[in-house]
Amino acid sequence: MTRTCWNPVVTILWLCALATVRCSAQTTIGASVVLDPQDVTVIVGERQSFFAKVRGMLSQDARLNLTTDHTDLVEIFPTSIVVSPGDGGFIDRVYEIVLLGLSPGQFDVDANVLPTGLIDDAAAFIRVTVANSQPIILISSVIGWIYFAAWTVSFWPQMIVNYRRQSVVGLSFDFLTLNLVGHSVYAAFNCALFWSGFIEQEYLDRNPRGLNPVLANDVAFSIHATIATLLTVTQCFIYERGEQKVSRIAWGIITVFIVVIVVAGVLVGTATFHWLDFLYVLSYIKLSVTLIKYVPQAVLNFRRKSTVGWSIENVLLDFTGGMLSMLQMLLNGYNYDDWASIFGDPTKFGLGLFSVMFDILFMVQHYVLYRNRANEKTLQEDSSTTTTTASNGGSKDSLP
């Protein structure tokens, strides 16, 4: 019979080996470097500073080498920095680095550490934007706020027209329903990505050097748009609407959207999709709605040979916002030499142009084709095709 004897020496050696394995699984990096700020804008011909902040325990000298892949766009001074440990090996220093803008563009600058692994350099990068002109940056910012205001206010004239006329005759219910769906899913996308830390982390995991694309004004706009559209829908249940109703085609399109959302939700539930993928599906539905929502209103105007009941102020504000939005994109394209963001991925610009073209069509219908349909006699004749009640003494389809 074999007896197993306890050997304290062997046990101690085994414990030391186990401790070594566990320690090797942890990071041995005691210092880190951060480039601050991580978004820098520099004007062509001018200089702009940023800082390399190194802090932590350092066992030996290290060198920070800044990438020079874009020497045609910017000059960096210095391109290399020697980092030495302080007393007791601890370092807490800030190094100034200067950029000289040469040509417009957008790119990343990285600081690589040698020897590798001595300093944590995960945050050692900045996004550099070289612009042609500072005034253009300011003009672009002002334009952005103007078109944001125009688009925000554009929802109210239609409600005011409906209230004054006590009628929604002339307003396409298909347009209104599709618009509600589009703004609702857009609000869900913005709110989730803006307020959910879990979903934001998913986005950052896929885009390690990206920024959350949803800003506070995006959330405010989408929520306001949804509420304003819902209030307009409510008016359709209160005021005279004649024989107007949501068409089967519109209901069919909405049903397809619902099926897509349900399927995407099931895929999330079965871990086939991530929540971020689900939100992207909602954004695609919003894009689809934008492409088709104006068609029913244009067709309704054509069939009635009138734009009475459809707010032209809404169209003018939407046209203003769309034109300024595209102007801002063109200004930014020139200022940052970033035409690829417009013509390389034309979705946003194309959607803006598409909306503006429909706004032009509505203006032609209102001011050219059917301008003589706005007199009281014509309105009374037109209203005879809609259902009225004896209690209202006739049609409410008249100008405010």
Give structural notes:
This protein has 400 residues and is α+β, with helices and mostly antiparallel strands. The chain has three domains: 31-131, Immunoglobulins (Immunoglobulin-like, Sandwich), CATH 2.60.40.10; 133-167 and 309-370; 173-286, no CATH class. The protein is 54% helix and 17% strand. It contains 13 helices and ten strands. The chain has helices at residues 8-25, 134-153, 156-165, 173-195, 197-206, 216-238, 248-269, 275-292, 294-304, 312-335, 340-344, 347-369, 376-383, and strands at 31-36, 39-43, 47-57, 62-66, 74-77, 80-83, 90-101, 105-114, 119-123, 125-131. The strands form two sheets. A five-stranded mixed sheet has the order 5-7-3-1-9, with no helix packed on it. Strands 2-10-8-4-6 form a five-stranded mixed sheet, with no helix packed on it. The longest helix has 24 residues, at 312-335. The chain starts with 7 loop residues before the first helix and ends in a 17-residue tail after the last helix.
Please name the defining characteristics of this protein:
single chain, 400 residues, alpha+beta, Immunoglobulin-like, 3 domains, five-stranded mixed beta sheet, 13 helices, 54% helix
